[in-house]
Amino acid sequence: MAVEGSHEGLRSSKYIKFKELLRGTIPDEVLKLIPNSFYIIGDIAVINLPKELGSYAAEVGRAIQLTNKNVRAVYMGGSTVSDYRIKELTHIYGEERTETIHKEYGIRIYVDISKAYFNPSLSEERRRVANSVVDNERVLDLFTGVGPFTLHIICSKKSYVVANDINPYALTYLRKSLELNKKLVRGYVDIINSDALELLKSLREETFDKAILDLPHKAVHYLPNVLKILRVNGIAYTYIISDTPSNAAKEVDDVLSNSYRANYMIKNIIRVLDYAPHKYIYRVEVCKLPTK
Ligand SMILES: C[S@@+](CC[C@H](N)C(=O)[O-])C[C@H]1O[C@@H](n2cnc3c(N)ncnc32)[C@H](O)[C@@H]1O
Asked: Do 189 and 128 fall into the same domain?
């Protein structure tokens, strides 16, 4: 079992300039409380500004826009809500628009950040997963959102992907992205709007080579049903929030030891992103082995 190091997403150094611009305008003790980093999705910036700093929000937004020439709109991000995993957003500066096109490795991803989940910090991760897929493989992207994993895969491999999500708006954006990237697309996609468990129960056993389970706070519980639809030697890329790789592995073992008769092996555990203090998102690669 291999364990790799951290691959953090967008970090501070590239974006810290906006705080330099604010120095002198905003009291130093307030400046210290403003995060050093923020996300840029397409031409929209999202900063997780503490609510109590709301009165400084417009100045922060203006500084972000002035120091990032491609940014047209700035939002303050709140908690992640509902099954759709969408961030609460408050407009703080620039255009009042939540729809944008984000570019990753030449792939254009259409998204409305008020209607669907999107995390730009995962671009390298999507690339790595897409690189592990080979031509003619069948992949299930169980929690596809606006489809970034699916797009990376079908734009680089001649493979077949079933892209599923419970959020119909997210899938509308995936359809738009397929149109936008049609010159790059090499593979095939079926888009399904279903609850993951319902879909898994309706699929034929042993028909997929890979499955992507990107719903980190719940994904592990889908493993018993996911392993059924995987072929022998198929891999479930399971994203799990945990403090250590061994605890992430334990979550998998706890779920599978009780409810899954067939054999499996944890092939790799990769730390993908920081999630909270002492909590990380891990990709746990669960490989289906022949039944003993
Ligand atoms: C963390 S997001 C991941 C989205 C996508 N993989 C990405 O990289 O942007 C999880 C997604 O799971 C979807 N979801 C949540 N519960 C679900 C369920 N029971 N069945 C199917 N999709 C679900 C949400 O709508 C959301 O789009």
From this structure: yes
Q: Whose CA is nearest to atom 23 of ligand 1?
A: 166
Ligand 1 atom, smallest distance to 165 CA: 22
pLDDT category of residue 182 using cuts at 50, 70 and 90: very high
CB 224, CB 144: distance < 8 Å: no
Q: Using a 6 Å cutoff on CB, does residue 200 contact ligand 1? A: no
Give the separation between CA 9 and CA 282, rounded to whole angstroms.
13
Q: Which residues contact 198 (CB under 8 A, 6 or more apart)?
A: none
The residue behind tokens 């409305």 is: 112
Tally of domains within the chain: 2
Nearest in space to 247 (alpha carbons), one of 222, 225, 226, 278: 278
Chain segment 257-291, per-residue pLDDT in tens: 876 666 899 999 999 999 999 999 999 999 999 98
User: Do 226 and 128 lie in a common domain?
Assistant: yes
Do 93 and 141 lie in one domain? The reply is no
Q: Are residues 24 and 69 in the same domain?
A: yes
pTM of the model: 0.93
Rounded Cα distance between 14 and 256, Å, is: 42
